[in-house]
Amino acid sequence: MKLKKTALVAAAVAGLLTSGYAAAASEQFIGLPSYRVGPFGSNGASLYGGWIDYMAMINERDGGINGVKLSWEECETEYNNARGVECYERLKGKGATGNTVFQPLSTGITYSVLEKVAQDKIPMVTIGYGRTDAADGRVFPWVFPMISTYWTQASAIINYIGSKEGGVDKLKGKKIGLLYHDSAYGKESHAILDKLASKHGFTVEKIAVASPGNEQQAQWLQIRQAKPDYVILWGWGVMNATALRTAQKTGYPREKVIGVWWSGSEEDTVPAGDAAKGYTAAGFNVAGANYPVVQDIQKHVYGKSKGNMEDKGRVGSVLYNRGVVHGIITVEAIRKAQEKYGKGKALTGEQVRWGFENLDIDDKRLAALGAAGFMPDLKITCADHEGAGKVKFQQWDGAKWTVVSDWISGDQTVVRPMIEESAAAYAKEKGITPRDCSKEM
Amino acid sequence: MLYREAGQFKASYIEDQQIFPIRQDKIGFIAILAFFSLVVPMIASEYWLQAILIPVLIFSLAAIGLNILTGYAGQLSLGSAAFMAVGAFGAYNFMLRIDGMPFIAALILGGLCAALVGIAFGLPSLRIKGFYLAVATLAAQFFIVWALVKFPWFSNNSTSGVISAQKVEILGFAFDTPVSKYLLTLAVVAVFALLAKNLVRTTTGRSWMAVRDMDVAAEVIGIRPMRAKLSAFAVSSFYCGVAGALYAYTYLGTVEPEGFSLDLSFRILFMIIIGGVASIMGSFLGAAFIVLLPIFLNVAMHALFAGTMPAGLASNLELIIFGGLIIFFLIVEPHGLARLWQIGKEKLRLWPFPH
């Protein structure tokens, strides 16, 4: 029968693969559930390319982390939940100590393995996506939605708009449009913006765009009628470029359009052409290839023709640099965990989880990494798995992104209680007793 | 030689009407079932159980559901994933809102919810046919996913419409290990597959096939097309719904409405096309093919070209080979893998002395 035959052949192949890895003892294995085909394939190629290049650079320049070389294997998920679960299961036992960390770069896959990671003791890091309330580390010890959650981002965007108007108190009576991708991802914005609206006294005009969003004439006519002072673009993929083009067509100034970080990459602005000029977007990392960390990658990895990117022109793009941020955080967490569990040793996922939870990348460390201004400083604690909660705003000048703000924080007095409330509801539904963080070390 | 029915006489109608009239088939079926329920749990690793066997079984069940509607009753549907979503969210809500709800009952109630929704979206089938009906079921696909995100009640006010399945417990036994989840899935799928196999041999099943082959003629001989079509929609959606509930409870644990996208509907459709339209066994073969082949290609690519080929190229090559193989199988055998098996069986009957 087909099934059994395939099973036997696949088992043989799998056997070959695992035997190859068993030999390398002091290597830290990192499984990469990447996607290079499918609707988001080009995004995945940049993100995972940057991440792989950074790890290759650590191996080339420093000889690994305290002598422990990083090794990795990709598994194609096609941004598909079922394939993501298969990759998770396939990668988790690989390497001498198993998979160190799982970072699927897909909210759907994040949800699909949310409970498995706790059972298998593998930390899951979701930087800028995933389950927002997992920022409450007491309920979600194994999940790290780092740097900034969607809610913090929404709050930071409001703060940024406030700063342009001369203070958040000036937002009273203003109208802010929200053009969102009609999906779970887009709806993440609603609760927080409603709360902020009632706090600061502005109104939110929510306008949905059905996926994929390549036709938005009606929505922008609606925006023209409502005349909002600003429009927050909460989009993904083809929807972003279409929004900018339609904004131009209907005569809405792009300077007043503020994108979220999944709407603010070269992949969104370049296809929009000159319609994107003046458009501003949030980001937890910035674009540019002239940061020392990217320069080091150019020198040690591309200099030896070992780079992962097929299109070298994309090195230094927003998404590529986001991949580098993933690399930095992963490597720093392993380094931190080695301080506790023994330098120069390959660590298990459980040990690396401790590294993530005690991660402290301050400005001094960022400068040493060659990433000052590249990403925000980050301090994770047992209770707070988000860390930074800051974003920077970049404006597209028609050819490249230029940074137009400093790091702007979200309003944690609003966001944090919402996170805790949501996490508590989850804990209650699941019968989880939240950890007591004063007992953790 | 081995597969010969000479000497097997049927002395009564009941013997003649068995699901497996040939003794070898019966033995083979029992052996396969025994292998998967007794041997596999002992030898299979966690990876095989959780990442391969459970999804293959669940998709087989969904494919049986679609096969009942499309293969047996001839009504093309693109909404299978949405009916799966109804089943998953239905079971979740029954478990959530009714204290002490037994899991199996929730599973069946979830399936019944899907059946009701299926009947509602099956109503247009009384007037429209073929591609137009496919478009009507497409509406179901979009509407259901939209509704599940739009109304927070379905997901118990989760901000993003995501539900996370409760613990599965039957008579005090917790199904929390991969082996137990696999066995639970296998049991449910085996029971429902047997039911389906029987159902298509009953009056109902025969009326579906009559409507499929020529609905006017079917009406003339006294089959009520409305009852036949709507019952096909109901049973099909019920199967998809149960598969969806299993998908949430024994496979993923946490599901979001977007996971049940049109893409998944198409994959289930491909499963029955590749496996064999109007064949229960084809549903299993098709599901195994569509689920296993991409994984196998991915593993094989890594084994063969690790480090020598850019990852993007390897991923695209997998898709190209996958598509190529689908076309190859459709050219070699347009009636699907089940038909290949049937031809093999005919050959086996004569082996080793063909005419």
TrEMBL record, chain A:
It holds the Pfam family Peripla_BP_6. Residues 29-398 form the Leucine-binding protein domain. The keyword Signal applies. SUPFAM superfamilies: Periplasmic binding protein-like I (SSF53822). This is ABC transporter substrate-binding protein. Belongs to the leucine-binding protein family. The lineage of its organism: Bacteria, Pseudomonadati, Pseudomonadota, Betaproteobacteria, Rhodocyclales. PANTHER family: BLR6548 PROTEIN. The keyword Nucleotidyltransferase does not apply. It comes from the Bacteria. It comes from Aromatoleum evansii (Azoarcus evansii).
TrEMBL record, chain B:
The chain crosses the membrane at residues 27-44, 50-69, 76-95, 101-123, 130-149, 182-200, 230-249, 269-299, 311-332. Keywords: Cell membrane, Membrane, Transmembrane, Transmembrane helix. The keyword Transmembrane helix applies. InterPro entries: ABC_transp_permease, LivM-like. CDD domains: TM_PBP1_LivM_like (cd06581). It is a multi-pass membrane protein. It is found in: Cell membrane. The keyword Membrane applies. It comes from the Bacteria. PANTHER family: ABC TRANSPORTER PERMEASE PROTEIN (PTHR30482:SF5), HIGH-AFFINITY BRANCHED-CHAIN AMINO ACID TRANSPORT SYSTEM PERMEASE (PTHR30482). This is Branched-chain amino acid ABC transporter permease.
